[in-house]
Amino acid sequence: MEKFGNFPFGEEHMAIITISREFGSGGGNIARKLSNDLGYSFLDKDSLGEILTNYGFTRNKIDKYDEKRPPFWDIFTSDREKYLSYMKLAIFEFAREGSGIILGRGASILLRGLSGCLHVRIIAPPEKCREQVKKAYNINDQQAEQLIRTNHHDRAGFYKFFFDCAWDSPLLYDILINTGSFSEERAARIIEEEVRHLDSRENREESLSSLKDRYLGQKISTSLLFEKHLAVNFLSVEVSAGHVILEGSSPAREIIEQCTSECVKIPGVTEVENKIAVVTAYPVSYTPYY
């Protein structure tokens, strides 16, 4: 078994760490350090972008939605919902592999309630953030403060629009670390220690089972809405050990039957209980599974 810091990490010590951070707080540096020290996989903007590119998204489309509130006119299109659906699919798939660190992207919300997960938020005093941003971008005080405000506004808008919650709510996180009080090195050690106490083989097995269900539910939703383009409103997908329950509404019985036939083709599905109702009183919109 290898040792990292003062704590042993091996097959029996596996966890998912999500890290939310204020711009300039050093959260990205801490996440990368943990990934290197623990040997954990790392999902950030660049690695997520590669996955989404493989799903067919352009870089411009990814940049438009990544940790930002969608532009006004995009609110009325299915593009934003498609982006969210594939982003969630990528995060669930990454988390299923175990031993990973996810930087931002609402992961603390998507993986909420799972054992074997540690949700961390990194903050810092405004003056520290300003100095860090000035140094990183070679800009003056005024430019740094504007960049910080823009970044925080974007991230807050992303969380509010896509998840209907406050980005900085302490209730979303297990640990809050102020890098004005702790160095990045010390912050990483604190997180390592909590992972050591958090994780166990039982936690991992329970977490993997729940993640399998969440991933499969998202896979079904994404397939029905954005690959097969089936006209279903308010689609909800519940999965438990391969048993799938579909709910929502559709304008035609044939579409509902096709949902079942497409669903059973997806690996991992053992049984489908289709509760989608026929409703024709309002226009169709695509609403992905949450």
Can you give a write-up of this model?
This protein has 2 domains: 8-199, Rossmann fold, CATH 3.40.50; 208-278, Histidine-containing Protein, Chain: A (2-Layer Sandwich). It contains 10 helices and 11 strands. It has helices spanning 27-38, 45-54, 59-65, 79-96, 107-110, 126-137, 141-163, 184-198, 201-227, 253-263; strands at residues 2-4, 7-9, 16-21, 41-43, 100-103, 117-123, 175-178, 233-240, 243-250, 271-274, 277-278. The strands form 3 sheets. The chain has a 5-stranded parallel sheet with strand order 4-5-3-6-7, with helices on both faces. Strands 8, 9, 10 and 11 form a 4-stranded mixed sheet that branches. The protein has a two-stranded antiparallel ribbon with strand order 1-2. Helix 1 packs across helix 8 and helix 4 (79-96) packs antiparallel against helix 9. The chain is globular, with a radius of gyration of 21 Å. The model is unreliable at 1-13 and 286-290 (pLDDT under 50).
